[in-house]
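Q: Entry one of two.
A:
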Amino acid sequence: MKKTLKFSTILVFALLCSCASSENTATQIYFDTAVTLTADCSDEVLSDAFSLCEKYENKLSRTKKDSEISLLSSGKKDLSADTLEVLKKGLYYSKLSGGKFDITVAPLASIWDFKNEIIPDRDEIAEALKNVDYNSIEIIESSVDTQGKSIDLGGIAKGYVTDKLVRFFKENKANSGIINLGGNIAVFGDRYYNVGIKKPFSDGEISATVRLKNKSVSTSGIYERYFRKDGNLYHHIIDTATGFPAKTDLLSASVIGDASVDCDALSTICLLYGLENAKKLINETENIEAVFIDKDYNVILSDGLILKDGIIELKN
């Protein structure tokens, strides 16, 4: 029996459809990534959608010192309804994965410097690991006490904002559109879109194409942020058991579902799990499917997907 989810990274997808002539599009930078919004709407609505991105970035981004999430580490705080909702969702997936996905991973994430290709020493990693434990977080109504733990919602916040943008466009009578928030893709409206899944470590080649309508898809991959040193590849998906990049037989996992927030978290969890356990998780989870690319660049589908004339589609 499939599990029902209790609650309703940067990769670039190629959007292989041609947009309708009435659709308006623009790109701005939020959450340290490119956000491209395309919708059948006015310039004003599109501008307001980007303002919504700014609003959530100021609440949820760990890199903004005065955001609600950044301020949490300084003691008990009362959170806004939005931030509390994302935090609870992050805790849900932290528990679901047994801590593989852990929203208190910030101490580890902050010492791995992928830009300057710096590997932290083992003592530094060991010290950081002492401050990674999602079980330390206490929530009473809107009040949150992290017990000194630092929160990083990077594996789930962009999915949450993507869902909010879909809702915003629908409320403003947009008939169709595409949201691409750092590789979290959502398509909505009365038409199908073909979404390309990037070939890992390529300059834009496509490994697979998925045909979607009113769905979200989020990909996590070990090639989003990485460097090679002494013959080893170090990527940004950190295993909270070791403090080092996860050893996985997957290059990427693209999770498809109704809510981008779920797809966002599950795609990271799948990478951490590896192919066998990831397939089991996805096949047992209601209304969720996935496209996996393994270390040999094979494309593997979850049970609810089918390849038809070179395009991946949902069976139902």
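Q: Entry two of two.
A:
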Amino acid sequence: MLRKILFFGSLAGLLAGCALPGATSIPTAYPANYLPTVIYLTAESINATKAAEITPTLAVTDTPTPIPETPSPTVVPTLGPGFQLSAIQINKPGPMSKVASPLELNVLAYPGKSNKVEFDLYGEDGRLLGRTIQYAPQRPLGDYLYVKIPFEIRAVAEVGIIQVSTKDDLGNVQALVSDRVLLISNGDSIINPPGNTIYERAALNNLPDNPTVSGGVLSLQGEFQPYNRQPVVFELISNDGKSLGLRLLNFPNLNMQNFSTTIPYKVDVQTQARLFIRQADDLLSSPAYVYSEIVTLNP
């Protein structure tokens, strides 16, 4: 009996000390005050793992390379047959500007052999209000000139006539242009932009530079823009001031118009002369416009 009791006791102890092969051990619980620390460490471990696995790719910003500006081309005026740049261009003041004393003039001029440019200011009744003469060095592209002409008028305002002219080496007027402004005795000047002063009013289509003409007749074809409604004079004048031939033309309006005419002349020997195309001012006894070219006349 005693042997049975000892046998079953030993068997119970053996079973208590051996674990079954498929059994899982129960984990030992953490203390209650240690649980937040465990959660924090676990989260940090997860974040570190993600950071190691994911390498962020930086976004590439496409910065365009600036394109340098191309300067605008300089516009060079193309002249039609017979047209020439004006020998005198009044750039300031423009037509019918309101001008207080002194009158300030900006001009581009080709003075010719005399190297003289004359500036005149007339009142509407023809009286001379001021005059000045400048010497210019004959630059190939023209001379930029600036002058001041003080003036006095009796009225509050009146029309003023600006005339700019050049002379040849013999003292003859070879080019002249006019402009009209409003002269005021008080107040500030109001300057208008320049008019169409780039080209000559006269364009000769059939004459080369320094032409030589024979047969007693000079034929002319071209275009002309009248300054006013006065007749336009075509005249051949010798170097000593003698008129060799004359023709008057009337134009129906003030637009650029075609013309065709002839000037009979008579010379006994080869003669150098100047062809003048001019139009009188309708307020003054002097011309409003003069254009000229040198020609050689044969019998």
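A: Comment on entry two: Residues 209 and 294 are 8 Å apart (CA to CA). Helices lie at 2-17, 35-53.
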